[in-house]
UniProtKB/TrEMBL annotation:
<keyword id="KW-0472">Membrane</keyword>
<feature type="transmembrane region" description="Helical">
    <location>
        <begin position="269"/>
        <end position="286"/>
    </location>
</feature>
<dbReference type="InterPro" id="IPR001806">
    <property type="entry name" value="Small_GTPase"/>
</dbReference>
<dbReference type="GO" id="GO:0003924">
    <property type="term" value="F:GTPase activity"/>
</dbReference>
<dbReference type="InterPro" id="IPR005225">
    <property type="entry name" value="Small_GTP-bd"/>
</dbReference>
<dbReference type="GO" id="GO:0019003">
    <property type="term" value="F:GDP binding"/>
</dbReference>
<dbReference type="Pfam" id="PF00071">
    <property type="entry name" value="Ras"/>
</dbReference>
<dbReference type="InterPro" id="IPR027417">
    <property type="entry name" value="P-loop_NTPase"/>
</dbReference>
<keyword id="KW-0547">Nucleotide-binding</keyword>
<feature type="compositionally biased region" description="Low complexity">
    <location>
        <begin position="194"/>
        <end position="215"/>
    </location>
</feature>
<protein>
    <submittedName>
        <fullName>Uncharacterized protein</fullName>
    </submittedName>
</protein>
<keyword id="KW-1133">Transmembrane helix</keyword>
<keyword id="KW-0812">Transmembrane</keyword>
<dbReference type="GO" id="GO:0005886">
    <property type="term" value="C:plasma membrane"/>
</dbReference>
<dbReference type="GO" id="GO:0005525">
    <property type="term" value="F:GTP binding"/>
</dbReference>
<feature type="compositionally biased region" description="Polar residues">
    <location>
        <begin position="254"/>
        <end position="263"/>
    </location>
</feature>
<feature type="region of interest" description="Disordered">
    <location>
        <begin position="191"/>
        <end position="263"/>
    </location>
</feature>
Length: 287
């Protein structure tokens, strides 16, 4: 995809403990593929998908999936910087993953702007019989930090689409209401050259600024159990997914056995550095 095929590019980060379903969530959103077997992320990876609003505004959502392992903490902090939105994960059948949310929230507070859009997502909703974390616990935590809360099954692609695309709409609304400046990198937004020129032109005309603000049409087919931020009178408008693209992933194989893992530790470190260097290049290019 041509990087100028969008008006806006938004950086989203997916964070949470290892094994909570971040990579599966990402695969479903970008490719429509449900990952059956658990394969932990080594370091980080990212994918991109473009969506088009009825108004003709095209947004490229760039989603960064970071490893939940503590050994990659420095990477996690680095790539949580300059994010437009964060999706924080735990799974309802694992109490420890819920307890870890305080740590992930603290990381966001340290490195993100005060305008970051945040969602807490509880996965494994389809494993109700194994539940260890009650719905009200997750909702209460989300309310305490001003975040939205969802319980989902990663097999439900429609609900995943709604979560990500609604975050995009909310970021667009912050731009249109001048609550964030898309020219400043800390807000996790990049504009195309044409959009930058249009935005700069609008800023020079202070008198007509309010009249010239772009209005964005929200998403159709929202599940009834999800509460959104957009105006009620526009709920029936549509958003059209468009031009889903994925960035290359570095294949990684999990080492079996402690002895083999220790023997190949140096080689693993080298292999981890390759996707990180690659990702850094894209990170500075886009943001």
């Amino acid at each position: 995809m041509n990087f100028e095929d969008y008006q806006y590019l938004f950086k989203f980060v997916l964070i949470g403990d290892t094994g909570v379903g971040k990579s599966c969530f990402l695969s479903q959103y970008v490719k429509g593929i449900f990952i059956q077997e658990y394969d932990p992320t080594i370091g980080l990876e990212f994918e991109s998908k473009s969506i088009e609003f009825n108004d003709g505004i095209v947004v490229q959502n760039q989603l960064w999936d970071t490893s939940g392992s503590s050994q990659f903490m420095a990477i996690q902090k680095t790539f949580c910087q300059n994010a437009a939105a964060a999706i924080i994960f735990y799974k309802i059948d694992n109490q420890d993953s819920f307890k870890s949310l305080d740590n992930w929230i603290n990381i966001l507070k340290q490195v993100s702007s005060d305008k970051i859009q945040t969602v807490i997502v509880a996965t494994h909703k389809d494993l109700e019989e194994k539940r260890q974390v009650e719905t009200e616990q997750g909702r209460k935590l989300a309310d305490s930090i001003g975040a939205k809360f969802f319980e989902i099954s990663n097999q439900d692609k429609d609900q995943i689409d709604v979560i990500v695309n609604t975050l995009s709409f909310n970021v667009l609304r912050l731009i249109s209401s001048s609550k964030i400046n898309p020219l400043k990198s800390q807000y996790g937004v990049k504009m195309s050259r044409q959009q930058e020129q249009q935005y700069a032109s609008q800023q020079t005309d202070k008198t007509d600024n309010n009249n010239n603000q772009q209005q964005f049409t929200p998403i159709k087919n929202n599940p009834d159990n999800i509460e959104f931020e957009f105006p009620k009178e526009t709920e029936e408008d549509t958003i059209t997914p468009n031009k889903a693209t994925g960035s290359p992933k570095e294949p990684q194989q999990k080492e079996n056995g402690t002895n083999q893992q220790n023997k190949n530790q140096s080689r693993n470190v080298f292999m981890v550095l390759i996707p990180i260097i690659f990702a850094y290049g894209f990170y500075f290019l886009f943001i």
